Amino acid sequence: MLSASLGYPRIGANREWKKALEKYWAGGITESELHAELREIRLGNLKVQQSYGIDVIPVGDFTYYDHILDTAVMFGLVPQRFGWDGVNVDLPLYFAMARGNKGAAACEMTKWFNTNYHYIVPELKGLTPKLTRNRLVDAYREGNQELGIKGRPVLVGLYTFLKLSKGYTPEELPGWIDALLPLYGQVLRELAEEGAAWVQIDEPILSTTLEADDLVHIARIYAELGRLAPGIRILVQTYFEAVDHYAEVVKLPVDGIGLDFVHDGGGRNLQALEAHGFPADKVLGAGIIDGRGIWRVDLHERFDLLGRLRQVVSDERLIVQPSNSLLHVPVSAEREAALDPALRGALAFANEKLEELALLVRGAKHGIESITEECVASVWNREELGRIRGGAASGAAGVSALGPEQFARPSAFAERLAKQQQRWQLPLLPTTTIGSFPQTPEVRSARFKWRKGEWSAERYEQFIQAEIQSWIEIQTKLGLDVFVHGEFERTDMVEFFGEKLAGFAFTAGGWVQSYGSRCVKPPIIYGDVAFTAQMTVQETVYAQSLTGKPVKGMLTGPITILNWSFVRDDLSREEVAYQIALAIRKEVEALEAAGIGMIQVDEPAIREGLPLKRENWPVYLNWAVRAFRLATSTVQDVTQIHTHMCYSEFGEIMEAIHALDADVISIETSRSHGELISSFEERTYDKGIGLGVYDIHSPRVPTVDEMSGMIDRALRVLAPEQFWINPDCGLKTRKAEETIAALRNMIEATVQARAKYGAAAVKQ
Ligand SMILES: CN1c2c(nc(N)[nH]c2=O)NC[C@@H]1CNc1ccc(C(=O)N[C@@H](CCC(=O)N[C@@H](CCC(=O)N[C@@H](CCC(=O)O)C(=O)O)C(=O)O)C(=O)O)cc1
Ligand SMILES: N[C@@H](CCS)C(=O)O
Ligand SMILES: [Zn+2]
């Protein structure tokens, strides 16, 4: 029996990766310095995995931005607008695809399955693939030569890659498979020549709901790859859910299959394995340690699971591994000494997970007695955690006592709208932003000084007030219609609320990559969530005191707080969502009582939480919508509830979006080049809506014409009376100059649109 890792966090124990990239982008280090810094992190990652005694160590999972972008670039899939010479994809071009440059908009970015990791969407239209550089050979060679580690290269599977790409029709899919097969074959052959014995090919698409054709294509791909590259053994890796077609998947003509035994719909992979057996000529990669959660396992319980797997698969064909790449968890819990020891003891980040794997393999090889001490400790850890959780006031039980009126606004939308229009007298096509303004180094450093005790709370508060004041002035000068206070006091839109609500803990260094160099520090929900004190009223009321324009209160919704936190595993997610909803509702009510008449409750993660299997969608969407409504329904008709969503494909959940019953919604649209707009073609969406008119994740300032184009496209399917003009998302990642320049252009595009659509609106 061996242990394996499927991928390791790139960011470094202290986010060295992020810091190096950002220094390079800011011109602070040269390209060769960047290469040297990232090389050190990359090799360091391999060494750590080796030091935990992991037998099979992944190579090629490291990246300079995103592994899907790497795959596209490896196959020369560079969209024409970047003017590629067709020879070598250099670093500026690579980063331009991710972040945009002066001449070309960035590629789209979207959620990686149901995680908060975002990948760059490959664009295939009009392109012919070719192998540029075999980056897996480079990675394998480096590990081998520098550290003597004969790693297992990781590659995203051809079918998953194509399914996540855009720019081709369903009829063109077989042609794309044919075009990529020889290239995948060449990559694998070259790896074999370099000495790699195995390759891990990730096909998480196998864990989603598949159509009949999908399996036919997948079987053809792997039959063909086996023929093209007979010298290397292939492990097809699935994760994030059970595979629906177990018998077909394990029959694929490959040498190993990786299955997730943690996130498998309540044991479906295990049931299938026990019912159908496992082919005797294949290796099973058994994902038995949670690669997405952060709780230490009960080693006894995992050992029992391993025992059941060993009944079906012999030890020499069994590899014990995390359920998925450890990319989704922080690096090490070692830094978390400030936490309550009971909580600290129950945490397993990437390194602790590797330790758990090594222990399980040791137990299997030498008998469970060889890990008795660790088994006892693991049980004790979980008991201690239960002790500090306190008595569970179950959210669902609490919710069942709430009447239906708690989940619905007192009046229908049309009635509310009339009262809100009366109150606000907004112009046609009102302009607003999504909430955050630049979190400059000064803002972050002020917070850092306050946290370290160098600044008093009073000084920090004054600093935040000065930022708010300055941005109220900027919004006034720009001529926006609905203002925001700017969220300067927040580290992150989820972590901030986690720090203020009961039931949450937050870490010192629990960072996880979200997209590119941007990281998040998800708070940990370990106990019952409850409101303790007002969280946002002071800053919002202060901002409102400086202007006659409405200032939107700005909160994060229950589903987003849930999805972007690490969540306790002893209560259902639904119950935890209701607990959060009731806490957020208290803040909504406090804002309203303080005179704030527009309140935005952001739910950008609602789509991301959607189960991978379609049959599980209705149940999730039902409780997600109920949680949002529970948080927002007790306000008066004249109080306008806004919500916001970004970086997901929303077309499929329009009905649920409608059911949220928010008065106004803003949705990211421009980074996906306006694709969402077609979802409104049926013209059934009747509430206020702002489809983002520019991409905020790119440092590039969009032109007035580009934004006018977005407005025109949207107004082909939406009425001007319901349309709002706003950027795609919050502006915290942008510099002040970029933000002001882009908003100035947005206002200019609005002025032009009002002139163009105003007359038509009057006529209607
Ligand atoms: C809107 N999005 C969000 C997602 N998920 C979230 N949890 N939050 C989001 O806003 N998912 C979808 C999208 C896109 N994703 C992201 C994710 C992350 C960012 C982002 O800007 N991240 C920041 C980190 C923010 C933060 O918490 N900062 C802290 C700590 C700052 C820090 O590094 N301090 C230094 C010292 C500073 C000094 O001056 O000395 C240190 O600790 O070493 C803070 O503000 O206090 C990032 O930079 O990665 C955006 C979108
Ligand atoms: N209000 C948040 C939403 C981000 S999804 C912001 O503006 O940053
Ligand atoms: Zn957003």
Automatic annotation (TrEMBL):
The active site is at 697 (proton donor). Keywords: Amino-acid biosynthesis, Metal-binding, Methionine biosynthesis, Methyltransferase, Repeat, Transferase, Zinc. It is an enzyme of class 2 (transferase). Zn(2+) 1 binds at residues 644, 646, 668, 729. SUPFAM superfamilies: UROD/MetE-like. Its EC number is 2.1.1.14. L-homocysteine binds at residues 434-436, 487, 602. 5-methyltetrahydropteroyltri-L-glutamate binds at residues 15-18, 111, 116, 518-519, 564, 608. One of its GO terms (molecular function) is 5-methyltetrahydropteroyltriglutamate-homocysteine S-methyltransferase activity. Its cofactor is Zn(2+). It comes from the Bacteria. It catalyses: 5-methyltetrahydropteroyltri-L-glutamate + L-homocysteine = tetrahydropteroyltri-L-glutamate + L-methionine. Residues 4-313 form the Cobalamin-independent methionine synthase MetE N-terminal domain. Binds 1 zinc ion per subunit. Gene3D superfamilies: 3.20.20.210. Pathway: Amino-acid biosynthesis; L-methionine biosynthesis via de novo pathway; L-methionine from L-homocysteine (MetE route): step 1/1. L-methionine binds at residues 434-436, 487, 602. Zn(2+) binds at residues 644, 646, 668, 729. One of its GO terms (biological process) is methionine biosynthetic process. Catalyzes the transfer of a methyl group from 5-methyltetrahydrofolate to homocysteine resulting in methionine formation. Belongs to the vitamin-B12 independent methionine synthase family. NCBIfam families: met_syn_B12ind, PRK05222.1. This is 5-methyltetrahydropteroyltriglutamate--homocysteine methyltransferase. It comes from Paenibacillus taihuensis. The lineage of its organism: Bacteria, Bacillati, Bacillota, Bacilli, Bacillales.
